[in-house]
Design goal:
The chain has 216 residues and is an all-alpha fold. It has a domain of 149 residues: Orthogonal Bundle (MetI-like fold). α3 packs across α5 and α5 crosses α7. The chain is elongated and about 70 Å long. GO terms for molecular function: transmembrane transporter activity. It comes from Paenibacillus uliginis N3/975. Belongs to the binding-protein-dependent transport system permease family.
Length: 216
């Protein structure tokens, strides 16, 4: 092991740049997956004829596919058919699609958990179905969904390392490159990666616990 060499400024900057890419991919994927999941979960909750069943079918397919397969398909298979997507956006799209399906189920469960009495009270006060959904059901459901959503986003951050398969220059990819230049850098680089992932995920887990503690 060579901690001094592994943590020299050029190497450290290289690894931190990779972690920055990891955070960028994870951040964008969190936003997109939340939007996708909220839309799909709401559609499933409304039980609209045909559309709701079709959405449920698509969500179930995506949830039962390996994330690695989705990223591989978007980043490697599609370019061979003429659809070229930069590796950064291929990783974001793959993560957003997969995690969006996971979020959709969290959103649907959160909406279903809202007490029917509150819905009936809102409807009896003159609110339409969609007004009730927007102003009553969704705000209440979001409070209950917050802890599992944060937990899902923690998994998303860890799953972003799978983008190494399409040579995205994120943290794990850069560790592979650095370790290839000197095998004595492997353990120091992996220890640094462990600290970085743990720090971010621990902060997110604290946020999840606080949100859960605030639940009525």
């Amino acid at each position: 092991m060579d901690f001094i060499g592994a943590y020299s400024w050029p190497n450290l900057r290289y690894l931190l740049h990779g972690f920055l890419i990891t955070l960028q991919v994870a951040g964008l994927s969190i936003v997109f997956s939340f939007v996708i999941g909220t839309l799909l979960g709401t559609v499933r909750y409304t039980r609209a004829p045909v559309i709701s069943r079709l959405t449920a079918f698509v969500v179930d397919i995506i949830r039962n596919l390996p994330l690695l397969l989705i990223i591989f398909f978007i980043g490697i298979v599609l370019p061979q058919t003429g659809i070229k997507i930069p590796v950064f956006w291929a990783a974001v799209i793959g993560l957003s699609i997969f995690e969006g399906a996971m979020v959709a189920e969290i959103v649907r469960s959160g909406l279903v958990s809202v007490d029917k009495g509150q819905i009936e009270a809102a409807r009896s006060s003159g609110l339409s179905y969609f007004q009730t959904l927007r102003h009553v059901v969704m705000p209440l459901a979001l409070r209950r969904m917050s802890p599992p959503l944060v937990s899902q986003f923690i998994s998303l951050l860890k799953d972003s390392s799978l983008a190494v398969i399409i040579s995205l220059p994120e943290l794990m990819h850069n560790i592979q490159i650095l370790s290839g230049s000197n095998y004595r850098y492997v353990i120091p680089a992996l220890l640094l990666a462990s600290v970085l992932y743990f720090t971010v995920n621990y902060l997110l887990s604290i946020a999840a616990r606080r949100l859960e503690a605030r639940q009525p």
